[in-house]
Write a structure and sequence with these properties.
The complex is a heterodimer of chains A (109) and B (115). With 109 residues, chain A is an all-beta fold. Chain A has no helices and eleven strands. Chain B has 115 residues and is mostly beta strands. The chains are: A mainly beta (109), B mainly beta (115).
Amino acid sequence: KNEVEQSPQNLTAQEGEFITINCSYSVGISALHWLQQHPGGGIVSLFMLSSGKKKHGRLIATINIQEKHSSLHITASHPRDSAVYICAVTPGYGNKLVFGAGTILRVKS
Amino acid sequence: SAVISQKPSRDICQRGTSLTIQCQVDSQVTMMFWYRQQPGQSLTLIATANQGSEATYESGFVIDKFPISRPNLTFSTLTVSNMSPEDSSIYLCSVRGLAGGETQYFGPGTRLLVL
């Protein structure tokens, strides 16, 4: 079993829809990261969380430490949100990120 | 935030040759990492670049194949040696520990195709 599991693997949405991507992890962590990778390959750090909730524009990230679960929400989705969204954790036992497999999001106009 | 540049951005190489990828950060960082991303796959950590000492390699990666240098807190190189088509990947530099922060930043990547 992977230490970081994401769902769904693939997601297709219509423009304007509310989108949720889930991430579960099985190890103790010091932080959880949400990353966005566009088709050109560049990776952008969207959020780093250790508790609670963060919001940036139309993106919201939440984490529940007790349940070892995080969600990334996109409100009013747009085709430019189409990308791979990756959940990663910094385990409590080390410095290296452990990555989920990623969620491929496609938003259709 | 950190601005990371990588050179080259892409290259096409012949098998048996070597390529050195440079990673430059606009400020000093604590940790520098090198990742590989094969087509359709997630990121795989190659090694952690340590300033002033040998890099720490992950299982399956060895110094002879992927020598790494990190002469200071803002610069690192990764060499892909004796390349084969299986080395065709995106290679990404990543940093953490900017001013003590824990956000991890990624470079734009180097797309390598080995013929």
